[in-house]
Amino acid sequence: MAEIRRQPELLIKTKRRAFEPVWTVLYAILLVVLAILAARLYVASRYLIVPVDGHSMEQTIPDKSVLYATRNMASVERGDIVVIDVTDVGCFSSLPADKSGKRYLIKRLIAVGGDRIKCEGGVVYLDSGEGYRALGEEYLNDFRDEEGYRTSDFGEVVLKEDEIFVMGDHRGHSDDSRLLAKQGDAPLKASMLTGLVLEWSIPGSDIDGGAEQFFVEGFINGFFR
Predict the structure, then answer these.
(1) What are the residue boundaries of the structural domains of the chain, listed by start?
(2) DSSP strand pairing (81-85 vs 123-127)
């Protein structure tokens, strides 16, 4: 009986079919890796992971907390908790620097450009164009100074359009804009604002609901608009 030999082209096709599942899996893995890298780059360009080192924002933010902040400063307003780059501000040179040599403050934004601010009798007064009004500041730490004030008095500070005034919620344990005012230095600049802390990332907030909002706003809306 004559021997039946397989044609060379049939052998090649058979080998190709054998490798197709392997290449499909490798291609899928490559797509997943690229998607993860793209997502990480995207998030890094829009958000900050903010480790807290200190007690100046207690009791709102405990020491050693980890927060998330958006780099989008378009919606920042008085009362928000913000991240400020104070690397080039001399009176904050004693603060610990990160790996890149940067120094940051995490404080509450109290006043913005054009405002006037002062503290009398332990009460902070703000004039945003309609006369002075007392701030309720329900977020303050329970600490009180020797006079029984949560915030020690300081004289009027007038902010130019590009300046800001920030303070910690633990007024007795916070180096902030009051230090600049006391030394007669210029206030912090609005351009130093680096991040707006996302409220849901603050300990005690709705973490689950916030994480969902972070995913929707940061990933889905960001990639598809």
Answers:
(1) 49-223
(2) unpaired
Average model confidence (pLDDT) across the chain? 84
Residue 76's closest CA among 110, 32, 117, 34?
Answer: 110
β-pair partners for 195: 83
- Please state the pTM of the whole predicted model: 0.76
Taking 70 as the threshold, does the pLDDT of residue 16 lie above it? Answer: no
- β-bridge partners, 108: 81, 167
Q: Which two tokens stand for residue 4?
A: 């039946």
Q: Cβ(157)–Cβ(181) under 8 Å?
A: yes
**Rounded CA separation 217/225 (Å):** 11
CATH code at 49-223: 2.10.109.10
Strands (DSSP E) found in the chain: 47-51, 66-70, 81-85, 104-111, 116-120, 123-127, 132-134, 154-158, 163-167, 188-189, 193-197
Cβ atoms 124, 117 nearer than 8 A: yes
Alpha-carbon separation of residue 67 from 71, 98, 200, 222 (angstroms): 13, 16, 9, 20
Gyration radius (Cα) of the chain, Å: 27
Q: d(Cα 164, Cα 161) in Å, to the nearest integer? A: 8
Of 42-46, 134-138, 140-144, 219-223, where does mean pLDDT reach its minimum? 219-223
| CA atoms within a 13 Å half-sphere pointing along the CA-CB vector of 198 | 25
Residue 186 is classified by DSSP as P
